[in-house]
Design goal:
By secondary structure, this protein is an alpha+beta fold. The protein has one domain: Immunoglobulin-like (Sandwich), CATH 2.60.40. It contains three helices and ten strands, in the order αββαβββββαβββ. The strands form three sheets. Strands 5, 6, 7, 9 and 10 form a five-stranded antiparallel β-sheet that branches. The chain has a three-stranded antiparallel β-sheet with strand order 3-4-8. Strands 1-2 form a two-stranded antiparallel sheet. A hairpin with a 2-residue loop joins β5 and β6. The radius of gyration is 26 Å and the shape is flat. It starts with a helix and ends with a strand.
């Protein structure tokens, strides 16, 4: 047995890894075959037989979610979109407060598309509350689809976009994170804020 193991240990094995690049496929969700052929005898092939291209909507949605999650868990603030976060609260009962969080985004430097004479973009607002141990307490996401006439667009650019989120929280200290992402260029902004209720 020792002789056999020694023989195996001293054998020379060679592995070849082949990769290839192709033009960006249409994101239509279709299946594409992969076919490899060997011209040299004694070799074995192991490879993926095919793949599905992602649908454009799915790829877009996954990208949006990944961006928002990265901003939520990442340290510090992201500054591609200037963001401001304020809050106000009132006591509902002995153990609960209703807290209104206002997230304001400055969109003056954001690009908007043009469709049928309207300025278009989708902007997502996410607000998440953690306790002092960084444990998730509550959160909410809102997405707003903008199709603005030029005069309304000018007004929104001047005053910014505001999102209000109401959370019911017990008294305590919280770490809040607000994230804003727009969909034309994928720009993102975030802000952290520590609050004490009451």
């Amino acid at each position: 047995m020792y002789r056999g193991l020694k023989d195996v240990a001293h054998r020379q094995f060679y592995y070849y890894v082949m990769t290839y690049a192709m033009p960006a496929p249409k994101k239509d969700g279709d299946y594409h075959d992969i076919k490899l052929e060997l011209t040299r005898p004694g070799l074995e092939l192991s490879y993926r037989k095919g793949y599905y291209t992602p649908k454009e909507e799915l790829a877009f949605e996954n990208s949006r979610k990944e961006d928002v999650m990265s901003a939520l868990v990442g340290p510090g603030n992201m500054s591609e979109i200037p963001v401001n976060l304020s809050y106000n609260y009132f006591q509902e009962d002995d153990t609960t407060y209703s807290v209104s969080f206002i997230t304001k985004a400055d969109i003056r430097k954001l690009r908007f598309g043009k469709e049928n004479g309207r300025r278009t973009n989708q902007i997502s607002f996410v607000l998440v509350a953690f306790d002092e141990s960084d444990r998730y307490i509550s959160g909410l996401e809102k997405s707003v689809e903008f199709q603005l006439m030029e005069n309304s667009f000018a007004d929104v650019q001047k005053h910014g976009i505001t999102s209000k989120v109401d959370l019911r929280l017990p008294p305590g200290r919280y770490k809040l994170k607000a994230v804003v992402r727009e969909n034309i260029q994928g720009k993102i902004g975030s802000i952290n804020k520590s609050v004490e209720i009451p």
